[in-house]
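Collaborator request log, item 7. Partner lab (contact: R.S.) asked for a structural prediction of Sugar phosphate transporter domain-containing protein to inform their binding assays.
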Amino acid sequence: MSGKLISPVPAVSGRLFTVGLVISWYASNIGVLLLNKYLLSNYGFKYPIFLTMCHMTACSLLSYAAIAWMKIVPMQAVRSRLQFVKIAALSFVFCGSVVSGNISLRYLPVSFNQAVGATTPFFTAVFAYIITVKREAWITYVTLIPVVTGVIIASGGEPSFHLFGFIMCVGATAARALKSVLQGILLSSEGEKLNSMNLLLYMAPIAVVFLLPATLILEKNVLGITIALAREDVKIVWYLLFNSSLAYFVNLTNFLVTKHTSALTLQVLGNAKGAVAVVISILIFRNPVSVTGMLGYSLTVIGVILYSEAKKRNK
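Returned to partner:
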């Protein structure tokens, strides 16, 4: 009996590569979240808008390097002034989401921040209905009940609850959902579709333009304060550089994981990532948690899983 044996090595190496990508995605996502919390809350660097501007500056530079020099993906051109305006609108909403999220981390523990962030599907469904009048199957809306109920329970049982931080966190979650809905509408035609890497390439510099005046007006002399702080403790420079680079790698690994697995796999991994981030943050920051709070968060995650399953079944 003759025949060639197919080596399992490429398949194994392919699986190992995918596992490596997922681990990198988890590490960058959770890492930037925890470092944001450390800088804004524990370290006392109370400048969330400037921090976001650092993130967007790094995303601008590293996106260009990845696309123009390293050729990770082909560069896609902006085809019209109208398309540019649409990208600018998305960038503005994106800025609001990131800034609000960073502000919330000054006041809320990461565990509660993640619990509120898990309600993104609820806001996505609401905005999709309001803007596009697109109705989902009734069972899909039913699955959103535990998503919202869980956060209400978690809020009531959160020992470190802060109203302003909570409002900022809800605003960040809503803006994130609005951006995803608007992106589907504004860049839906074949000539205007951009992959996430190219979209970031154009959105990030526009975000810097939005954030610069906001930083100068709302966080006066932040650059001078940061330089003075760096003279006392040079670690702040390395924290900001590493944190800003991580913010880019969140987007890069997000794109690569989606490319090498699927959007559905990314959704499942994202649900698990939130739970991992909660556990790690509690171990690192030792923030108090209550049984009620954890039950509420667990209910929200179950609701998100049910929502994902309902969406998949009704496609």
